[in-house]
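== Item description ==
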Amino acid sequence: MDTSPNLALPYIAAAQAQKHVTHNEAIRTLDAIVQLSVADRNVATPPANPVNGQRYIIAAAPTGLWALKANNIAAYQDDNWTYYTPSEGWLSWVSAEEIIVAWNGTAWVPAASSSSAALVNPTPLVGVNATADAANRLAVSSPATLLTHTGAGHQLKINKAASDQSGSLLFQDNFLGHAELGLTGDNDFHIKVTADGSTWRDALIIDRNTGTVELPWTSSTASTNLLINGDFSINQRAFPGGALAANTYGHDRWKADAAGTNYSVAGSTVSLASGTLVQVIELAAFGFDTLNGVPLTVSLDSPSADITVAIGTSTATISAGTSRREATLTPTTSGNITLRITKSSPGTVTFARIKLEIGRRATPWQPRPSAIEQSLCSRYFVAGAASSYILGLADTATTWMSQFFSFPTEMRTNPTLSLSNPHNIDPTWAVLVATFRGGSAIAGSLDRKGFNVYATISTGALNVNSAYIAQGYFTASAEL
């Protein structure tokens, strides 16, 4: 054997002449490949002005003097190029890339992965001053972590596999979570906190569809009630309780469904014996065009039994219990919405103070000032006093025109007007002279703001252009 088995260094024969030549050749080889460091590994032709001692890993498709020497180590020694064929496992530092590469028998690859073409792309675990594991595949122990730009913007992206999973930032103390923000369990943005690491509360939720902000545990904030007369305190029709015919209104804004309803009210407590209570919500009155796809929460006080609530095809159950109870619905239609309240089991169910609000959590019941609630009701229905008096002029001996009667608030649309008189046969008004004088009354003019009455006198005669007081009753309805 003339050379060593690993580095192919020449042996000096026993009777060899000029032993120094063989010795120097071996030293030259050691100088070229021990502590190997090459300038580049992507050069295909020799540089024009090489420096003595400079080394290269020849590229995969070399030309010229380096042809047929692909992947060899080319060393410029004593003004000549010498080539060395690598053995599997050889390592070399590549100055141009500042990495260590290894020869795997086929190609030069980054030493960190003999089967990958990049140093950490991919690598299963990375630990920076810390030990990474299967759950935390990137672990960093450092006073700070910097992620900076390369000349433009910079984004940190957290991607989850499914909408019911979490993509979030978790803040810990001694490895116990206390705050979390991100897409936790759905695709709305959450900020949640916990005292013990197990019982979490959403402090803030931002709806992904509308941008609506919820503060579920901020009890001092009460959201707008989309229902009018939620405590059944306004009863312009003087509904006494009991059976209510199909699609007929009882207390303001509340009506029976198509099958009829039986209910009564004592104070603010509603007793629903049968049927369904219905309220149609005019979204435009609250500044909305649609709530399609927006979560809405129905809440009420102390239901004595389970109650079914529905908006369109979306239904939910409010469970029986004391204090405030709630359920969340998501409408799937555009335009105005209709809330239906039905008892879930036989027998009478009682409850109080109904509220419908945007969001997935109920906020406290907060009544509106009575004057505002009355004004909201009057947008849809106005009832005159049982014996209203109104001034007017006789335009002929047998006809009388009242002054304009203004509604308490502008109604939703031109209402349907009903005229009657408790002292005469309906639909008459009494024009007062010396005695009651019957009159057939009709609306002389009518719009959203009010009306006047035109009456034809059935007995007696009036003085033309004289003022007379009339007595009568009216209702105006602009219900949805």
